[in-house]
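lol so apparently i was supposed to do this last week
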Amino acid sequence: MPNANPPIVPTVLLSLATGSLLTYIYLLYQSPPPPSSSDKVDDNQHSSTRVRNTSNSSSIHDYDSDYEKQHIGELPFKPKTPGKSAWPWNKKFYDFANEHSRFGKSGVKEEHLKFESRGMGGSFHFIHFETRHMPSAIDLISSNGLSANIKNMGCTGGGAHKYSEMWSDRVGINMIKQAEMKSLVCGIEFVLKSLVGECFTFKPERIKKNSDEKIKEEEWSRKVQRDSIRDQNTYPYIVVSIGTGVSFIRVDGPGENQFERVTGSTIGGGTYWGLCRLLTDCESFTDVLQLASTGDSSKIDMLVKDIYGSNPAALKKLKLPGEIVASSFGKLASKNNPSDGIDQKDLARAILMMTTNNIAHIAYLTARLYKTSRIYFIGNFLRHNNISCQRLSYSINYWSNNTVEALFLEHEGYLGALGAFLLGQKGEDDSSRKVEKTEKTSRRRSQSAGEALCKEDIENLLKNAKNMKSNEESDDESSIEGEEDGPSFEEQNGRMEVPKVRQRRVTTSYIPNM
Ligand SMILES: Nc1ncnc2c1ncn2[C@@H]1O[C@H](COP(=O)(O)OP(=O)(O)OP(=O)(O)O)[C@@H](O)[C@H]1O
Ligand SMILES: CC(C)(CO)[C@@H](O)C(=O)NCCC(=O)O
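anyway here it is w/ pantothenoic acid bound
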């Protein structure tokens, strides 16, 4: 008698990405293996019961199974289904993870990010917690008996090395280590190829009435969905991973080694959060973003018009509008008492803008250097951080004269964990020696921004700058201000608009000490 409704009580597979501040866990709940020949069901019936219907799910993510059916060969691994003997060994873990949305004191499950995968035969769930609570997280798993039958776990980031012994000693779980950049790129390729609704950008709320009209940055708040990777034209693209520090990676193609970390910046999310901890009373990242949203950075930053006055002829010659920042924190340099008239909210905003502007500049130059129109910004600095996403969208559009687009991903912080898992499924395991070697090689290649520019690169940049200059001279100045959506992107990507500003569930507050 066919079993029409095999239960969706799955095997749980785990993967971690452990950075200096946060750790992301990705869980895959796989359905039980197909029934044996004695209780065979027809294929259609089986697949429809194995995979839950996403349209009823609370997730915003629809799984593009048609695409996967056609392109499954292009995924970075051949999906494994669990052996029959493996199931349902991890039921305890599954029930525990399923029943709770908070774990310990800083663990949070992000319901809105979960999605189904027909190819993987299960659902992906996402949890993060603060890395400093790693020992408590391991104890939680151990004391609840959750580690039974979990022998291996994909892992990437610095923590894959730092906490490896702790995991094996305390709970007997072996870390299958993967290189950080490779995991990131693998995760990005996976979500871009298989998830509908993953990629988006910000555009102005309205279209210019005439070419002289300037659309202000504040109006760049319309969240617009972007298409996934469909073909070779997508490459090369730039990935800017904004974590504690910032990595700039060029991805040349779908193959797993077709990327290079081209440069980095030490001014990243850690800089922002570190300076804010020093200069404000905020105790959580969520609080400081909230504070920044009410601040005014123009009390702190020196604007071009502060230097030039509002002299249209002079500004036209300079080719910079008066409203943009000339020097972050520059206004404080010439005040008798720098703290007069400013408070914590203005500081929080100015630090956020300084960090974001710097990243935007390097990202734009990197895109120019490698002649690409796509920059994907990821990493947890952007988490619930519409202010930076909007600034990046506006700046990249502005500096590139509407030829390069800033793109964002819904699973921005979990791409490394996802990639580490996928690579592990492929049977890869970077031994520490191999990781060291890879990182040495990439270290040699990826020096700081200035060093990375070889003579040829500089010549190219100068050539491009010259071309841009002559384009700008022939253009009306206003054409670089918030032009209506650029034809190149609209034609390339096809577009679907999401009417509201980036909608994310508000972060549940992070309780210190797990
Ligand atoms: N709850 C949070 N607590 C602390 N920082 C947070 C939080 N949420 C977001 N952030 C931001 O995310 C940054 C860390 O990002 P992410 O976790 O992607 O990097 P990482 O992996 O630690 O660093 P790197 O990529 O440089 O190794 C922090 O510096 C901060 O700006
Ligand atoms: C060190 C890493 C790669 C760790 O994720 C990251 O923090 C980073 O890219 N920092 C910038 C380092 C540099 O100057 O290239």
